[in-house]
Design goal:
This protein is an alpha+beta fold and 258 residues long. It is 43% helix and 10% strand. Among the domains are: 1-42; 63-102; 138-155 and 183-257, 2-Layer Sandwich (Nucleotidyltransferase, domain 5), CATH 3.30.420.10. The chain has helices at 2-11, 16-25, 32-40, 63-73, 81-88, 92-102, 118-135, 211-230, 244-247, 249-257; strands at residues 143-152, 185-193, 196-197, 201-202, 237-239.
């Protein structure tokens, strides 16, 4: 009986508050949420029983969309969850749930490695086997291998991208962030062997690393201090990579003569 009365008042376009006050005068207590449930229920609705058309994103995935999701997630370079949710017209939470619970997939960080072009791959294939034959059967103990690397300094008074403010400050008190073109760093050259390590040799800033610099600042100090110290009998093989400063004919000739 009460539901029918509420339905009749709703058909007259009475709002929920007026309906509540109307029944209150009759001594009948009815909550606003109850009126809303009558309005939205099939019993209190005068419209047909067809389901309303929902606009916006879905809360579940259809079988075809789930197959699309699995196909996108199986790629070596999958799109982001935000891109997937946009393509499937669902929320990112739905995509995350389906990946984890339905498809049983787990996100992992990729291993980092150097990119090699085709020429570099061919060169490494040609040189790896001869190098292995030189190193096998404990002959690696007579090798001294050197390399160069950049070491970047972390505390160089660079401009930070964040700033802490107290509660009585606002964003207008922030200091603008400036872009640092490149962090300060230094190049160092070192070597290792079965008998120990060489001394670190730092390359002077803005120096041109050519054959002359390599011979005078790296190779001569190495032969004078490290080579004789690590292998007093001189029975050792000096190994380095094939960067231009190492591959120059002048550099190769210097090493051959010494």
């Amino acid at each position: 009986m009460l539901i029918g009365q509420v339905q009749a008042l709703l058909e007259l376009r009475w709002n929920h508050r007026i309906i509540q006050n109307h029944f209150k005068k009759k001594g009948i207590a009815i909550s606003l949420s109850h009126i809303s449930r009558i309005k939205n229920s099939k019993l209190g609705s005068t419209k047909n029983d067809s389901k309303p058309i929902k606009n916006g994103r879905q809360s579940k995935l259809k079988k075809s969309d789930l197959q699309r999701l699995e196909k996108m997630a199986s790629k070596p370079d999958p799109p982001t969850q935000a891109s997937i949710s946009k393509a499937l017209n669902v929320s990112q939470q739905v995509v995350s749930y389906q990946l984890k619970d339905t498809l049983k997939k787990k996100c992992h960080q990729k291993y980092k490695c150097h990119h090699l072009n085709e020429r570099s791959v061919q060169i490494r294939r040609q040189r790896s086997w001869p190098l292995y034959k030189l190193l096998r059967k404990d002959r690696w103990r007579k090798f001294i291998t050197t390399d160069e690397a950049w070491i970047y300094l972390s505390d160089t008074n660079s401009k930070s991208k964040v700033q802490y403010l107290s509660r009585d400050q606002n964003r207008r008190d922030l200091t603008p962030s400036t872009t640092v073109t490149h962090p300060k760093g230094v190049m160092v050259c070192m070597g290792i062997s079965a008998n120990g390590v060489t001394k670190p040799r730092f390359v002077q800033p803005r120096s041109k690393i050519n054959s002359e610099y390599n011979i005078q600042k790296i190779l001569k100090p190495f032969l004078k201090d490290d080579y004789c110290r690590l292998y007093p009998n001189g029975d050792a093989v000096f190994h380095q990579d094939y960067v231009p400063s190492h591959a120059y004919r002048v550099t190769q000739k210097f090493l051959t003569n010494h």
